[in-house]
Amino acid sequence: MPDEITLRTPTQDEFPRFVAPLSVAFNEEISDAAVENDRHTIELDRFVGAFDGDQVVGCGGAYSFRLTVPGGEVGAAGVTAIGVLPSHRRRGILRQMMTWLFDQARERHEPIAILWASEAAIYQRFGYGPGTVSSAFEIARDKIQFRRPVEVPGRFRLVDVDEATERFPAVYEEVRRSTPGTVNRTDARWRWEVLHDAPWYREGAGPKLRALYEVDGEIRGYVIYRTKGDWDTSGPKGVVLVQELTASDPEAEQALWVWVSGIDLIASVRARRAPLPHPLQLLLTEPRRLGLTVTDGSWIRIIDLAGALEARSYASSGELVLEVADAFCPANDGRWRLSAASGRARVRPAPDAEPDLTLDTSDVAAVYLGAFRFADLRRAGRVRECRAGAIAEADALFRTEVAPLTSTMF
Length: 410
Ligand SMILES: CC(C)(COP(=O)(O)OP(=O)(O)OC[C@H]1O[C@@H](n2cnc3c(N)ncnc32)[C@H](O)[C@@H]1OP(=O)(O)O)[C@@H](O)C(=O)NCCC(=O)NCCS
Prior knowledge:
Blueprint lengths: L4 E4 L6 H11 L6 H7 L8 E6 L2 E15 L2 E13 L8 H15 L4 E4 L4 H5 L4 E2 L2 E8 L14 E4 L2 H18 L8 H8 L14 E7 L2 E11 L2 E2 L2 E2 L1 E10 L2 H11 L5 E9 L4 H5 L9 E4 L2 E4 L2 H7 L6 E8 L8 E8 L2 E6 L7 E4 H8 L5 H6 L3 E3 L4 H9 L12
Parallel strand pairs: 4-5, 13-14, 17-20
Antiparallel strand pairs: 1-2, 2-3, 3-4, 5-16, 6-16, 7-14, 7-15, 8-9, 9-10, 10-13, 11-12, 17-18, 18-19, 20-21
The chain binds coenzyme A.
């Protein structure tokens, strides 16, 4: 069984062969151009192929991210490109690759792994929990009515990839510093992923466009989008597909939404991976017209429990003993005393202490960035309160100011 399978990293030349299982696993053809493009961002020493003899039957990798957490940031393994051939499924190959990826994350002192899940069930078994939630909407353009006129003192400019690569990151960085769940972006990620107009992602829409918003010559925000033109006998009914809209202040964010909703020959505006709550919920006269939906966002896995808990900040002072169950990373399994003062915490093993709360690592992941509260876990039967009042105390400690969001797809 898994012992017939060997894992190793690819050389530069071997990379296309190593990712070949992904086309089959995802039921789609991944073009040579897409594989070549991945070379700009992939970290070969963090990529692994699973071999049955000399056939690559599975693959997976990780990016070296900085992940914003409440009050700071940590190194995080951004797990990506996971696939196993249908001929080799359910034999523990993913389990073997996940072990490899987590071992490497530990060596690199990354206490957290983060990913976008094709199916959450796969990763919950490995201790991932819902780290962020995302919203999505599609609203008919004629239903976008702002409660009050939004002032737009600046101007918009469509820019090429070079100018966007130079100017957009400053805005993103400002937002990243204060938003748990966001990850840093290298120049290569900006140029070859975020801004790159990959034809294989167009899905019938037009080219990727990049607009920046400036006030007095200073960039205050940007939007990356495509438009999908369409007509019927009643006239134009195109869609604006917003990939990302980021602003350094609320006024600029409002101006950007006004601009997006004013694009000509458009019948609706669609956005994905957006925050929750969404500012349009409070900006529009009829927010229900957004048809806002909520889905899971990124999933996080706490690999080093004490390291992760010590890396974030706390909103109050106090002490809690957590009894954490972790079958896949047994070093986390057991009782831990979290002592918080002046915004930071020390976390130490406390094998003999009476627990205040018992829960699973995936539950810690759900509250870690602020997506959920301990009270939410309790309603779902996912935490046990062993001392009365401990859930309220835990929520007071873990309370965060900014709703977490992962806006980078990887
Ligand atoms: C998901 C995938 C990589 C799993 O690979 P695998 O080698 O079959 O997984 P393993 O045999 O190591 O399974 C590990 C555990 O996850 C479970 N699991 C695997 N795939 C699952 C799925 N799709 N749904 C629910 N559970 C799943 C297994 O049952 C097993 O649990 P167990 O240890 O309790 O028995 C493979 O099915 C695949 O390539 N799927 C299509 C592509 C995809 O979705 N990739 C993920 C991208 S984010």
